């Protein structure tokens, strides 16, 4: 690692090649890297969220004391190999790292990567140090497979190809299935398949690609059900000029209408519901590949031609603006399709002489040749923030070059699911170095995510990473040769390198933090071009930004990939079980960087711990609020803030960015059109937008706004409350419910003249501790109601309270509950509070939410509701309201509790998953929704 230099090499094949000379950065020759850490033994016991049974148990595992309980559980349960309870089972992180690094070092030694045995030892020690200290991590397949008797599969991302023949289509099904079986994901472009408007050679009508998507979707659903992975992650792409594009665009939105009809008819269409199997196309992300010509036609309102796959002639035309609107409308309804921008993708393509880039992996960050794969690794950025809040440029650069070296070595020994994928990957050696913890780095240094300063820091770091990666790739080309396809693509590859360097020259720094980072990046790009001119490059691609789901938890990252912080308050697992609520570690550091004193910081942190946001925190200046904006919560980052961040770093990436832009439920179709258009204008390669609560088959979220407290004049002394008892005979209503698999009953008694007066809660077996506590809780609430405590006070205090059991409910108005108490008081509010009070608290029925989206008055709907059964409703058609002016953000949506992506529940442990790029990751057990 570092100041690594290559020895004398033969130019154009002349003279002998010598391996890399490596210098120690993190380690010393007389100390083993493991001896720089304090190690301890821990017990890992993971239980089932439904019945408390043990899912996984391994006692006495060995990990550094600095590693969190969560990281320990995830690594021990997911990455340790060998049958639990046998001597062959790994029990120490040292064994895991030794298993993987041993293969990398031996392969590098055998293939001439190192100048001497001493250099091989330096590589071995530096890599072990970086992994044990959580500086970076390889993607999951490396930890699963390398050094075991299994196939040495190291790639997480795959791109397949399909031609216009039945044989090729069936091969697609088979290859996709093999990849899913191993827990990875794949993408494919179906645009070569002739459309349903064209004829077969036999004279009959062709089926078209959408028809063949059904078979692939059913296959993916079957493999998913086998349990190899939570979701068979796949991407299906269709070019915008394909004659079946209109059918493709609305494929999943039509199915979403079907889901709503099934739900209203009483079928089980919740996530994983028994009746969801009749719904098609749910196992893939769909994207439209749009061309610059199409986007210009959208701007001018022109006609756009659809091209025959067999003759290349235009066989139909569409109104480009109308098609674009339909794409946005479908995405508004069900989050699909996303968009991939072909102009930007091909413009940054290093291998156009070999073929076009036609597809991506499921999360759209890996964009490369057909029948190829990419292995990933992510750097923990927060590890390079020094105590004085400067960025450790030198060590970050050294780590980057070491990781790239290791990743390239892995291609040498890797196995691949198909021969064609192996040939392409070995011929072009695509790598995907990236990072995690960007959001935490920005907050800790006092940078707002959606700010010029925040974007400048992100761009500089990304430029340095990619520049150092390609510089090392050029050095590797001088040691072990360029990639096989470099010769035919030399001119194009050099052009793309110059484009990256030019983008770095155009980068404008804003603050002190990024200036030295940008200066170092400038040096790296200059050296990259210089060395690459002599030797070429070892890798066709070097960098991208992956979701870093499971490995982000392994690294104890606060934020994943390019994402901002998720929320200001989180839950930390404790040794021995249980958890505690903690305020993000970045907040005190950020406040210090912003100039606050210790006592002010303490007061602000205490306020955040109690309220979950920073607005009105003591001593905190309003101009600093934006530093603490998160992905969700009272102050959430506006959608275009995410798009602008992606645009800032895209010019410094070989691939693209795994990220879904979440928008609030109130967003309109016009908002989607605006975001998709801006993504093209700003030079992104891919973009997906998700509207909160748009999918029926996903858990819904609910927020609340804070109601203003009424002040009592100081001169008026409050009278002592008098208990108003209920009459012997009073009306009551009993509601059964299920929250996260826990069943119970609510019996609510009312005064004859209306008004809730008592609540009885049944949960758990009679005589159990839980039942006793709930009885006592019921009595306390009932007596307080009779003494005049308003129900809305309890609703305000108890909604959003989080503890197990939590998760999906069987209530169509409240699809997701943070706890049983959260559900109970939402249900009581819906049944016993008037609309105005519920609206202020953010508690609405399904039909009221529908009315609000359709521009109707929810109060009128509420007035018609006479019972819980009548309150169930379904989302209606998308309101084609004009796009809101960007100059008036306050009018878009109240920045109260904000919105939360309606993420699925983890099928393994039941925890609500967290967005990680375009996927979801579980903080409880490390499971992901398909991306490794």
From TrEMBL:
Ranges for region Disordered: 866-895
Keywords: Cobalamin, Cobalt, Disulfide bond, DNA synthesis, Nucleotide-binding, Oxidoreductase
UniProt domain Ribonucleotide reductase large subunit C-terminal: residue ranges: 155-690
Residue span(s) of domain Ribonucleotide reductase class II vitamin B12-dependent N-terminal: 44-134
The protein's enzyme class: oxidoreductase
EC number: 1.17.4.1
GO molecular function: ribonucleoside-diphosphate reductase activity, thioredoxin disulfide as acceptor
Required cofactor names: adenosylcob(III)alamin
Catalytic activity: a 2'-deoxyribonucleoside 5'-diphosphate + [thioredoxin]-disulfide + H2O = a ribonucleoside 5'-diphosphate + [thioredoxin]-dithiol
TSCPD domain sequence ranges: 728-830
Signal peptide (residue range): none
Pfam families: Ribonuc_red_2_N, Ribonuc_red_lgC, TSCPD
Record function comment: Catalyzes the reduction of ribonucleotides to deoxyribonucleotides. May function to provide a pool of deoxyribonucleotide precursors for DNA repair during oxygen limitation and/or for immediate growth after restoration of oxygen.
Family: Belongs to the ribonucleoside diphosphate reductase class-2 family.
Annotated PANTHER family: RIBONUCLEOSIDE-DIPHOSPHATE REDUCTASE (PTHR43371:SF1), VITAMIN B12-DEPENDENT RIBONUCLEOTIDE REDUCTASE (PTHR43371)
Protein name as it appears in the record: Vitamin B12-dependent ribonucleotide reductase
